[in-house]
Amino acid sequence: MLKKRINPLLAKELRTRMRNWRTFGMISLYLLALGGFAVLVFLSNFYMFSTGYNSMAQIGRNLFTFLAVAQFLIVIYLVPALAGNAISGEKERQTIDLLTCTQLTPFQIVTGKLTATLSTVVLFIIASLPLYGFVFLLGGVSPLEVLGLFVLILAVALVVGCWSLMFSAFFRRTVAAIIASYALLIFMLGGSTLLFTLLTAITMRTQGTAPFFLIMVINPLTLLGWLFPEFFSDIVNSINSNWFQGGLQIWHLALLVQGVLAALSLRLATRAVNPLLKGKRKG
Amino acid sequence: MIKVIDLTKYYGNFAAVRELNFQVERGQIYGFVGPNGAGKTTTLRMLATLLAPTAGEIIIGGIKAQDNPLHTRKLIGYMPDFFGVYNDLKVNEYLEFYGEASGRMLADVRRDIPSLLELVGLAEKSQDYVNNLSRGMKQRLCLARALIHRPEVLLLDEPASGLDPRARVELRNILKELQAMGKTIIISSHILAELSQICTHVGIINNGLLALSAPVSEVLARVEGDAVIIVTVADRQEEARLWLLEQQGIRDVTLANSGSLEVVFSGDRMAQAALLRELATRFTLFEFTPSKGNLEELFMEITEVAMDA
Lengths: 283, 309
Fold this sequence. Notes:
Chain A is an all-alpha fold and 283 residues long. Chain A has helices at 8-19, 21-50, 56-83, 88-93, 96-100, 106-127, 129-138, 143-170, 174-203, 229-239, 250-273. Chain B has helices spanning 40-47, 69-75, 91-101, 106-119, 135-147, 165-180, 192-196, 216-224, 237-246, 269-282, 294-308, and strands at residues 2-11, 14-24, 29-33, 55-60, 63-64, 76-79, 153-157, 184-189, 201-206, 209-215, 227-233, 250-255, 261-265, 285-290. In chain B, a hairpin with a 2-residue loop joins strand 4 (55-60) and strand 5. The interface between A and B is medium-sized, with 30 and 40 residues.
């Protein structure tokens, strides 16, 4: 019988990551930040409840929205730190040649590293479950919405993880790979938003129909439009209502574009890891 | 087992390796010797399928390495000139990882680890973290890693560099055991004398060109043909010098300031033994030392000729 085996690189990565105090330190900080802010949001909402402006379900809904956006952003900013040293770390330890000398293909090496990064993200998600348990106590949110959020966080971690792995495969030094990953992330998140806002503001009077909002398809935050359509469709429709008809949403385009970018990054990372496709080496 | 045909590697306009041709049969230990930057590592990396040649062919176990790198990697165990270890793994975990990554089942790998650690002298260290091993131990662990998938061919890039004399002797003994197990070994070094003690064949490379490829016995015969012997007698040095000059195979004898005689002798080891016997019957002999530097001199001579060419 042919046994399906777990990628040995994934098993090794999980073992070493779990032995490292860094992972537990990051989870502790993450929970402290997320939990601390959740308490603040809850207290401010509870004050409104006590004065009769809010229902318990509305507090639950507000808390969920806050947790979703906060967790989304935290994970996005954590992934480059988790994946940025995946391949460059092997180069620094001088173990990359030994890895490529095994029966692992370059694709298996890259996907093993990516899966290890996503596994850590899953750990972060699981660690945050008690906070969502509290949201359920308040009501206003369905389990499916929470599940949807987790899928979305994993999807965006996959996209950012692919870019970070590509830089990690390109650069010899982890610091350079992480800086490049964060630079791209900041451009995708802040740069695209700034560009969209500026271009829209400049051309609104003269070219009211220009589809500058399409710049936002490279922004990972746009994917939140799946769970919170009101965030994005209102903006887009206020500019040009002809663009999104028949159920098409901007996050659909964002998912497609970012999926293609992720696949391309993975392909480039795989090529960079393959020693027989490389040019210059020391002799 | 290994056939290298017109192997060439260019980095831009720089030729790291030029038209290398040699062959290594099953069970042989082939010493690859050359000065730093001669092209040894480049050649070994091409053999290990870690670098694509610019031209030429590498055939390992009847298969063209460039066409089927994954299959070739099954046949070879590569040990680079650096450790490449994961410090946060235990010794047995490190070997389990590479065993599995090399396509073997974990249960099989676990069964082989004790004997492998015994072979490299790390049986007591299986539960230790790699980080806690000494340099020599890490070197031996790397050798165990290269052997974990039972390869037929071993490619060892300067495995003795940085090791103390005791660790070098231990490594030499391990390599002899591996040869007895039928492994084909290519080992690089920049010290010819070191390789001549364990290799069956030697290839001398310089500036990317193979200057010599021959059995070690042939190389040693060249050296023995022109040995320098240091002879120290208790007295009558001038008489000893004149007597030596009359003997067969003696090319030159000079009296050094220290009082010793430097004898340039062309003859094999048997002839050296006969000369020693005769000398001892006529003079009070304090010292009779065939110089070990001749292998290095031969190396210098060959590499200089190659450089001039």
